[in-house]
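#help-structures
NK: newbie question, is this the right format to request a structure? protein is Putative chromosome-partitioning protein ParB
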Amino acid sequence: MTTSFAPLTVAIGDLVPHPANVRSNAPETYDPENIAHLKASIAVLGLLQPLLVQKLDGKYAVLAGGRRHAALKELIADKAAKGFTAKTKVDCRLVPEDCDITTALSLAENITQAPMNAIDEFEAFARMMEVDGQMPETIAKTFGTTVAAVKGRLRYGLIHPDIRAAARAKTITLDTMKAFAEHPSQKVQREVYEALTKEDSYLQAYTVRQALKSRGVQVSDDIGAFVRADYEARGGAVAADLLEEHSVLEDAALVETILLEKLGVAAEEARAKLGFAWADAMVRYDYATMADYGRVYPGPIEPDEAAQKRIDEITAELEQLQLEMEDEGLDDGAYNALYDRVDALEEEARDLQEAYSAEDLARSGVIASWQGGQITIHVGLVRPEDTVKEEGARGSSASPTGEEAPDAGEITYPASLAEDLKTERAMALGAAMALHPEATLDLTLFKLVSDVLASGMSVTQAIKIDARKEYRNHAKMDEIDETSLAQVAAAHDVLDLSWLDDTRPPADQFAAFRALEAGEKAKLVAYATASTTQSCFARDRQRDSLMHAFEIEIMPDIRAHWTPNAALFNRFKKAWLLKILGEDLGLAQEAVTLASSSKKEIVAFCDKLFAEPFATLTDAQRAAVAAWCPPMMQTAGVVCDEAEPASESPEPDSEVAQAA
């Protein structure tokens, strides 16, 4: 059966929604933001497809074309749109009033229009520019989108035809095809495509991008932006892209030459300023090559009168900063700014009290490399042929004092941080106890009877069974990881507290308590005991073998109850964070890249890393991130229960200065 619908024109003001329109139950479809593109297209090109309408109650109800109808009403309301009023007539097709297939018609209108193929869309945009002579700005206006979005589509439509054909034939994926747009030259695209397909392997977007990198440097790349002015001044070829940031400096050799020259200038400036013997440059700091280099370090010197005066000023300022940082009302921005100031002051104080010896300056030098989008200066390096080798140490150099050179990144925990870490470990242990009620019940009962019946000292001081809840003291309780708190709260929520009724006498409460099932009693005792755990670090197997073994049983991995976060990393020095990333977590490249970043940026990176390990990590790196914690917090870690905090330096004896 064939049904024909008579054409007619209807004033926009006479159009109403049709109850049989299949989109009528999805009002969000007609929201202004969802029809913006359609509104823009109609404003420029007019209504390209007639509306399907049916006469209802003297009005024309839109059976198919509800979004176009909504866009027309938006144009009427938009005073900036010219030529659209309630009396403006638009093309329609009239469905007879006795038609009994209205819902089917509406559905067919919506589902029989196949979505446009992505490549067709890209090529259509390209033809509008190449054949019709339209500019990206006019195309954007037509479709109610941004110029950047139009240029993005245009770039894909201008990829070499052979590569687009391969994507149509599904020889390569759409993402792989898009990767070729990283270089605007179709000639280069074709050459790379042929080279990669000769290898008879599955072509991936990643391999395409890597291959294109060897054919030039994008101007938006940090190196491209750094050398561009000099590159263009020397006549270097630039492959222009519709999106400026994707334009390419095609002469990679010239780019590297200019970069090395700039690095060389920076290295020489640092050499002259610091008094080293030589200067060199390398694009990337090659750790394998540099493994054979030695290193010299500045040693302590006696500051002169002016330097001592400045040191005293720094000491006073650090003490003031400590007081300011104890303000719990500080927001994160102000807190981090204070830490940055502490870092700068400590570095200035070290420079005033340390210097390289004349002997070390005479044989060491400076290397400048490109890292993290900027020039990084590596100082105090000693070439292999100049390295004074110590007995039993390869390529190492003694400090000017004759003692082993200090490791600037060595992690030493100041007293305040150590105490807070003990508190957090105790909380994690309490959570583990609450989650293992049977084992904790046994421990509690064992301690109670052993302390009374056994001779000698208490079997363990790790828990305090005297019906007193332990007070948790922490400098930044509101910033710590809340995993253990949530676990303990969850354990509390399932406790049977029906017996605990203050309106009843203790004897009645006790009777109700005795009537509880054994498992419920165990949960109650475990929760109460968990609340008594003492601030602690890992147990000494010799001094407290009981708790050492018990902790390994119920808390083999503290990370199940505690996760390092920004609150912890903020209290580490920048050098510590880089050391943890590079040595403990196997993220050496990331550590190098972040070395030139601010401490705030490194803390944010570490916080995100531990909150949700990045997808780019190797299995080994992921395992390291999942397991890492300060050594003395591990269940069977370094023996630190009675360890003294890090020895204080003779410099400002400010807790902030040490922990920052």
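mod (FA): yep, format's fine, and the tokens are attached above. Residues 389-406, 453-457, 637-660 have pLDDT under 50 and may be disordered.
NK: thank you!
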